[in-house]
């Protein structure tokens, strides 16, 4: 009797988790996609990119972009446009990947990121959000800076 109740409770828990995931931001992509290597790679790249921005290593951040865009854009200027703050007074305190999803072809993706920033010159706090767009070229994921930071 007790084993039957435990099994029933576990089935209810799994079913509830599935319904929750389908209605949450993660519901934008099937559960199988979220566990895929591509999704993990995209989340990892987004986190590394944000870490480079946090430590103002714009040269390293440039390496995530499409090869043809690497010399076209000044990341510090794009960051200033995005956050509406000069990079030298931007203190990126935290960031979190909220969701990621791939298109039906598996060649395009986007990663939703929330961040907390502090303006060093005014002690003001902001919570900007952004979507980083990625394209897959020759089996490698690259960020499309033109779409992500403009």
Layout of helices and strands:
Elements: H1 2-23, H2 31-34, H3 37-54, H4 58-62, H5 75-83, E1 90-102, E2 108-119, E3 124-126, E4 129-137, E5 140-143, H6 145-148
Antiparallel strand pairs: 1-2, 2-3, 2-4, 4-5
Task: Characterise this structure.
The chain has 150 residues and is α+β, with helices and mostly antiparallel strands. The chain is built from six helices and five strands. Strands 1, 2, 3, 4 and 5 form a five-stranded antiparallel beta sheet that branches.
List keywords for this structure.
single chain; 5-stranded antiparallel β-sheet; 6 helices
- Poorly predicted segments: 23-35
Number of helices: 6
Classify the secondary structure makeup into a structural class: alpha+beta
**Separation, N- and C-terminal Cα atoms:** 61 Å
Q: How much is the radius of gyration in Å?
A: 19 Å
Nearest-integer average pLDDT: 81
Q: Which term fits the overall shape? A: flat
Number of strands: 5
Specify the helix fraction band. 40-55%
Q: Into which percentage range does the β-strand content fall? A: 25-35%
**SSE run:** HHHHHEEEEEH
The biggest sheet, with number of strands, parallel, antiparallel or mixed sense and barrel status, is: 5 strands, antiparallel
